[in-house]
Design a protein that fits this description.
The structure holds 2 protein chains of 2 kinds. Chain A is mainly β. Chain A is built from no helices and 11 strands. Classes of the chains: A mainly beta, B mainly beta. At the A-B interface, β4, β5, β9 and β10 of A face β6 and β11 of B.
Chain lengths: 110, 113
Amino acid sequence: GESVGLHLPTLSVQEGDNSIINCAYSNSASDYFIWYKQESGKGPQFIIDIRSNMDKRQGQRVTVLLNKTVKHLSLQIAATQPGDSAVYFCAEHNTGKLIFGQGTTLQVKP
Amino acid sequence: DVKVTQSSRYLVKRTGEKVFLECVQDMDHENMFWYRQDPGLGLRLIYFSYDVKMKEKGDIPEGYSVSREKKERFSLILESASTNQTSMYLCASSPLRGAYGYTFGSGTRLTVV
């Protein structure tokens, strides 16, 4: 079956450093990918998305990279701040629905 | 901004009770979804709906039902709550059947005692 997975359950980074969160997906037919951020006690919030005809997309302090050859997605956060501490989920779109990964917890050390 | 509102943030119910979780979105989205979220298991799809009066089973529909009488409202029903339904429940909506992100509500943390 389909699965979307994140490589690491927890990532700890120093404030000000760059963070890279990785995600592997299994379905090469997936056409759209999205990253969500979920803070404690809240619902997931959209961060950035990318369609399968692109390999890179930049937002404010965030960049998503898509490597379709190895079915890999990554989220890069520049100059990580304490407010970035959260669980990050990737999701792929396939057969009309989003399929979510397990999530990576990002801890930012002051 | 799209808003997805879940009626309760925290809920405590007794085993065997019938429980209604309400979700309302204000952006005329066709698609609505119910997920539960448990540690180590991620987000699991319970039911979804692409239109009024439509419903489709997700990955874990057992013990749940849904109702979509109006486009903006999607209700999740636990017919007879059990302790293994203690979880965080998340409602989401999206505009079309195509590839778009979902907008989530804040979640309802349900405890069944």
